[in-house]
Amino acid sequence: MRDAQPQAIYLQDYRQPDYWISSTELSFELYEEATLVTSTLMIEANGNLPASGSLRLDGQQLELVSVAIDGAAVAADAYQQDEESLTLSGLGSQHTLTIVTRIYPAQNTALEGLYRSGGMYCTQCEAEGFRRITYYLDRPDVMSVFTTHIIADGSLYPVMLSNGNCTSDITLDDGRRKVTWQDPHRKPAYLFALVAGDLLSKEDSFTTMNGREVKLKIFVEPQNIDKTDYALDALKRSMRWDEEVYGREYDLDIFMIVAVDDFNMGAMENKGLNIFNSSCVLANPATATDAAYQRIESIVAHEYFHNWSGNRVTCRDWFQLSLKEGFTVFRDAGFSADMNSATVKRIEDARILRTVQFAEDGGPMAHPVQPDSFIEISNFYTVTIYEKGAEVVGMIHKILGADGFRKGSDLYFERHDGQAVTIYDFVSAMEDANGVDLTRFKLWYKQAGTPVVSASAEYRADEQALYLTLRQQCPDTPGQTGKQPMWIPVQLGLIDSAGNDMTVNVSPAKDSQGLESWTASSQVLHFTEAEQTFVFSGLTEKPVLSLFRDFSAPVKVNFEQSEQELLFRLKHDSDGFNRWDAGQQLMLGWILQARKDEFELSTEAQTVLSELLADQSLDPAMVSYLLTLPSEAYVAEFVDEVDPHAIHLGRQRVRLAVAMALSEQFAACYQRLKSDAEYQPEPQQMAARALKNLALYYWSLASDAGLRQAVSQFSKTDNMTDQMAALMALANSGDDELAQQTLDAFYQQWKNDPLVVNQWLSVQSGSSEIGSLQRVQGLLEHEAFDWRNPNKIRSVLGAFANQALRHFHATDGSGYKLLADAIIRLNASNPQIASRLITPLTKWRRLVPALSALMQAELQRIADEPQLSRDVYEVVSKSLQ
Ligand code: B3K
Ligand code: ZN
Fold first, then answer.
1. Most buried residue among 71, 110, 122, 655 by CB atoms closer than 10 A?
2. Which residue has the least CA distance to atom 8 on ligand 1?
3. Index of the ligand 1 atom closest to the CA of residue 378
4. 302 Cα: distance to centroid of ligand 2 (angstroms)
5. Distance, CA 828 to ligand 2 centroid (Å)?
6. Residue to mutate (ligand 1; options 126, 130, 315, 374; most atoms within 8 A of CB)
C-alpha cells in the first residue's frame, strides 16, 4: 500500500543503470515461519556512464538483516533505506555485496515474489516480484549469471528446484538438505524461479535438431500425476515446431514445468523452470474439456517459445513488453494453427480482438502497443500488449511473406542473442534482412486506438472496372489526438457470381510515397493514406468484395453489404475467416433488429444455414463457429450506447428463432456426429465434438427431445467436453428444477477436483440465465470458494461481470456493488487480481445513462478508499478522469 497519488514513470526517462551485476548467488534457507535469503552480488560500474559511486537497489516488503561490502559489514548509518529501496554510496568500480533479508512467504497473499501455494513454495518474479525476495537491480536490462542454493527440511520438501542445471545435492550436518542449481545463461531477475515441495514428476526426453538429449519433467502434487501426459506431448511438439519453423533449438539439458494452484496469471517462462497455473497444464479426458486441452497446448507452447523470444533476447525495459509478448503470442498462434485448424484459430483470435481489445482501445485504459508511461506495470499485461501486439507482428509477416519474415527473425535472434533490446530493434532486423523501410509501419506501435476503415465500391460495367475507395481514421485516445494514417495491409478477394475468386489487377501501382500498392503472392493491398481509391480492372462482371481476409489488420470496418451478399459470402468465400465474418455481420444485424421486435429467420438464411450444417466436406469446427451467434459482449462493441438488457433480449430471440427453424437439422447433425469412439484430445475428434455439442445446444432449446438427449449425454459420457456441454445446455434451459438437479449432481461427482469445481462455478456465475446476484453471493460463501485463489475469483467474479451481463447490469446497481465490494476486499490481499476485476467497470461511459451513473458511483466508491494499491489506483483514477 502506498500513498494516494503514485507517480507515473515514462519511457523517455529510460537510463542505463549505474552498475551491472555480473553474477548473483542466492541462498534460501526455508523455515516454516520465515525464509532467510542471502544474496551475493558481483557488481561493476557501468562504463557508459560517469561514475556516481552510488547504487540504488529495489526492494519491497523486506526485512533487512545485514549488508556487507567486500566482506566488511556496513553500519546501518552508512546506507539509506526506505519502503522501496536500499541505497549504497561511496562505491568504487567493482565490489562484492552480501545482503541478507528475511521474508515471510506464508503471509504473501499478493502471489508476487516467493510465496506458499498449498504445501509448496514457489515464485513469481515478472515483472517486479524479485524485489520482494531481496534488494536488487530489478529491471530487465540487468542480466546476471545465477547460482541458487536451497536449504530446507528434505522430508517436507523432497523436490527443490531452480533455474539451470542441478550441480549439487547434499545433506548438511543438521540433517537439512542443500540443493544447488546453476544457470549458465545470463538473465534478468524477472526470469528467476524457485520451487520446493512434495511433488511427483512425469519424465520424458527430447532430442534436439543437433542431436542433444534434453530431459523433460513436469512436477505436480501427487494426486495430479495422471494429468500430465498431454502437456508433455504438447511440449515436445512445441520444441520440434520451433526448430522447424524458426530454426530455434533448446539450450539447457533439462526443461521443467511445475503446476501450482495459486497463480495470478496463466504461466511463467522462467529459464528452464516454467511455473504454470495448474488450470493451464493439468488435463485428463474425464476432467478437462477440449477447450482446456487447446488452451494447455497453446500456453505450453507460448512459455516454451519465450525461451528465445523473451529469455535469450529480452526487453530493455517494461515499455518494450510487447517485444516478447506480442511476438510470442504470434508464434504460439502459428503453432496452434498448424496443430489444429488455421481458420478456426484466426476466428478465435479475431473474436478476442473485437470484443476485449477493441473495448480496451476505446476505453480509459487505452494505450499503444509500446506504452509511453505507466503507474504500475502489472496493469499493462493487456490484450493490447499481447494480442494487438501479435497482430502487429502478424501484419509484418503479411507484408514480408513467410520467407522474408523468417529472414528477419533469424537476423533478430542472431544479432541480439544475450541482449536486452527494444521493439524497434525487432523492426530494424525485419527491415535489414529484407531491405524494406517500415518507418511508416511503426505507427502501429506508437498510436493507441482502433483505426476505422470505411470502404465504398462502385462497379463500372462500361470500363469493366471496380472502384474501391478506402478511408481511415483513428479515434482520439487518452493523451493522444490527431493520429496519422497507418500502413494497413488489406488482404482481399473479388468473387464472381459462381463463387470463384477473380484475378486482381490494381492501379495505381504505387502510393504517393512510392510504395507498391499490391502484393500478388499474398493478395494484399497496401492502404497507407487517409483516403485512397484503387481501381480493379478486367472484371467482366460485378464482383462481390471480400475485404480483410484472414483478419489481415486489427481494424474496424464500415462496409455495407446486403443480406444477400453476406449470405453469398457465408456460402462461397474461399477465405474461411471471411465466411465466418460474413455470418457474424449477418447475425449481428439480426440481433440489433431483434432488440426492438420479434425475429424470424428468412427462408434464404434458413437454406444457407441448413446447407452448412449438412455439408460434410467442411471442417466441423469451422461450421460450429459459423453457426455460433456473436456474444453479447461482441454485440456491445458495435453499438453507440450499450443497453445490455436490449442486447440480451435481441440475442435470445435470434437464438430461439435459429433453434426453432433448424431444429430437425440440429437433431440430425447431432445424431450423425455422436460417436462411441474412445475419447482422444486430437483435432478431428475435437472438431466433431464442437459441432455435435453446438447442435445439442440449439436442439435442446427447441425441443423436449433435445433436452432429453442432453440429460442422457450428461450422465452417460466419459469425457468432460460432452458432460460440460450437456451441463451448459441444461443449466441454461429455462427449467430451473432440472438446472439445479444437474448442477447438484455435477458437484457431488466432482467436488474433490478443484479444477472441475472451478468450471462448475463459472457455468453458474457466467450465465445470463441463472447467474443471478443471489446465486453469485451464494457461491462466494460456498465451501468450494477461496478468496486467496485467483482461479476461484475469476471463476465466480470474472465470469459474472464479463459474461452474465443481464445480472451484472441489474438496474438497481446491485451487480456493480457486488463487484466493487470484491475489488475493495482484494485490493488489500492481491492487488493484481483486484485491478484486473475493475475492467468491466471501466466501460461506464458507454452505457445507457441510468446504468452509467450507477457504475460510475461504484468506481468512485473504490476511488474513495483510503489505502489503494498502485494497481487499483491507476485503473480507477484513469477510468474516472
Ligand atoms: N510472462 C508471463 C506474465 C507474467 C505477468 C506477471 N504480472 C506470462 C506470459 O506471458 O508468458
Ligand atoms: Zn508471454
1. 122
2. 268
3. 7
4. 6
5. 27
6. 126
pTM of the model: 0.99
CA of 357 to the centre of ligand 1 (A): 18
160: helix, strand or coil: strand
> Which H or E element spans position 697?
helix 683-702
What is the CA angle 618-621-622, rounded to 5? 60
Q: Whose CA is nearest to atom 3 of ligand 1?
A: 268
Q: Residue 868 carries which DSSP code?
A: -
d(CA 419, CA 382): 24
User: Tell me, what's the pLDDT at 21?
Assistant: 99
* CA-based R_g, the chain, Å: 28
Half-sphere exposure of residue 833: CA atoms within 13 angstroms, side-chain side: 28
Helix (H, G, I), strand (E, B) or coil at 529: coil
**Residue to mutate (ligand 1; options 112, 381, 870, 871; most atoms within 8 A of CB):** 381
**Mean pLDDT split into 10-residue runs, the chain, 881 residues:** 76 98 99 98 98 97 98 96 97 98 98 97 98 99 99 98 98 98 98 99 98 98 98 99 99 98 98 98 98 98 99 99 99 98 98 98 98 98 99 98 98 99 99 97 98 98 98 98 98 98 97 96 97 98 98 98 98 98 98 98 98 98 98 96 98 98 98 97 98 98 98 97 98 96 98 98 97 98 98 98 97 98 98 98 98 98 97 98 95
Residue 124 CA, closest ligand 1 atom number: 6
Cα 157 to middle of ligand 1, angstroms: 26
How many residues are there in the chain?
A: 881
Nearest residue to 875 (alpha-carbon basis) of 828, 823, 809, 812: 823
Mutate which of 191, 265, 306, 320 to test ligand 1's pocket (most atoms within 8 Å of Cβ)?
Answer: 265
d(CA 163, CA 482): 47
Strands of 104-253, DSSP E: 113-117, 120-124, 144-152, 159-162, 165-171, 177-187, 194-197, 200-207, 213-220
What number does the ligand 1 atom closest to the CA of 832 have? Answer: 7
Report the nearest-CA residue for atom 10 of ligand 1. 325
Burial bucket for residue 762 (CB in 10 Å: 0-12, 13-18, 19+) = buried
> Phi-psi region for residue 664, left (φ > 0), alpha (ψ -120 to 50) or beta?
alpha
Ligand nearest to the CA of 140: 1
Q: What is the pLDDT of residues 636-679, one digit of tens each?
A: 999 999 999 999 999 999 999 999 999 999 999 999 999 999 99
Q: Of all helices (H) and strands (E), which one includes residue 57?
A: strand 55-58
Calculate how far, in angstroms, residue 27's C-alpha sits from the geometric centre of ligand 2: 28
| Grid cell locating 23 | 553474477
Q: Give me the chain's average pLDDT, please.
A: 98
Separation CA 394–CA 406 (nearest Å): 12
CA of 422 to the centre of ligand 1 (A): 18
Cell 520482494 -> residue: 132
Q: Could you list the active site residues?
A: 303
**Ligand 1, atom 2: closest residue by C-alpha:** 268
Specify the residue for cell string 507498391. Answer: 516
Nearest CA to ligand 1 atom 9: 268
What pLDDT is attached to residue 4?
52
Report in angstroms the alpha-carbon separations of 231 from 66, 216, 218, 460, 681: 43, 11, 8, 56, 11
306 CA: nearest ligand 1 atom: 11
Residue type (1 letter), 66: S
Query: What is the C-alpha to C-alpha distance for residues 20 and 94, in angstroms, rounded to an integer?
Result: 10
**Ligand 1, atom 6: closest residue by C-alpha:** 126
pLDDT in tens, 327-361: 999 999 999 999 999 999 999 999 999 999 999 99
What domains are defined for the chain? 9-284 (2.60.40.1730), 314-446 (1.10.390.10), 455-564 (2.60.40.1840)
